[in-house]
Amino acid sequence: MAFEISDECLACGVCMDECPADAISEGDDIYVTDAELCTDCGACAEVCPNESISESK
């Protein structure tokens, strides 16, 4: 399962800098996760100041 970023994203970019798989990129309004590149490490969720990143269900 990949991690996903909710609409609560503040678009601060902290998660993108932390992702070792380069699976996060800047979307139109918020950052987005590429599920095919995500390695499920959770580094992005750990640094998100808004807790808007969680594991997909």
Total of domains: 1
Our count of helices gives: 2
Roughly how much helix do the residues carry, as a percent range?
10-25%
Query: Which stretches are low in confidence, meaning pLDDT under 50 for 5 or more residues running?
Result: none
Strand content: 15-25%
H/E element sequence? EHEEHE
Structural class: alpha+beta
- The end-to-end span amounts to 7 Å
Radius of gyration equals: 10 Å
Q: Which CATH architecture?
A: 2-Layer Sandwich
Short description:
With 57 residues, the chain is α+β, with helices and mostly antiparallel strands.
Task: Set down the secondary structure blueprint.
Layout lengths: L2 E3 L8 H5 L5 E3 L4 E3 L9 H5 L5 E3 L2
Antiparallel strand pairs: 1-4, 2-3
What does this structure look like?
It is built from 2 helices and 4 strands. The strands form 2 sheets. A two-stranded antiparallel ribbon has the order 1-4. It has one domain (3-55): Alpha-Beta Plaits (2-Layer Sandwich), CATH 3.30.70.20. With 57 residues, it is α+β, with helices and mostly antiparallel strands. A hairpin with a 4-residue loop joins strand 2 (24-26) and strand 3 (31-33). It has helices spanning 14-18, 43-47; strands at residues 3-5, 24-26, 31-33, 53-55.
